[in-house]
Amino acid sequence: MYLILIIILLIIVLSRCNFFKTNKFNNKKCNDYIIAMFLTSDYCKEAENLIKTLEYSDLKHRLIVYALDEKSNNCINRLNVDTVFKNLNLGNSSYGKELFYKIVTEKIIMIYELLVNQPEDILYMDTDIYVFRNFDEELRRVCMSDYDIVFQCDEYKLNYETMCKNLCTGFFYVKNNDKTRRFFKDSVKRMKQDSYIKDKPADQRIINGSLKNYPELNITTFDQIKFPNGSIFFTYDIKQDPYIVHNNYIKGLDNKVKRFKEHDLWLV
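and the corresponding structure tokens:
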């Protein structure tokens, strides 16, 4: 009788100490991811719009922003957000331009720095994103899974039959582990060694290409209905209670702002 009681007490103690958890990430780890964003001065208002949606969704406290010039640093600081100031004075540039390549190289550097300098997983978000509702529970499931990186799919239509062929580097979740740190270290090296190709994707091209050399990375994509890109949400008008929308598949900052305003998604 006493032996049975001792065994029961031992089981209770061990369970409370997490001895029976099989996943290498405990619940606290999977609730402690950070949201990373970076910008230059032209994107202050677009970033503020995103930050307001994060605040309304109770996600702002997770955010850290890399500001690449003095103006962007000033505008983000007044929003009461954790900010890293990297005074690079690169200026501003639109998608597909040579300077744009140099700017988004800093994105990959930022991801790598965050992976090696702090323990949490990272959700990266471009500034042209609108958050509709809190996605903590969704990302907790991602964290508890076996996937190393989960990307938004950057294809113009829904396709569940095959693996997404164009992974989006404007919205992705990366686990902080040895494999992902090696991958982003190598991606930084490739970004610096590669050269600008006229009107071609920059970091997205590099990341998609680099993944071919890392078969050990377990990758997948977010549900395209829950995390739609600009084509699915705006062009195909598929809006089934999404968590976010990425305002891509349109060129030019002014056009992005206009489209946000037309759909009542502009808050600043």
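(Above: one complete record from the training split.) The radius of gyration is 20 Å.
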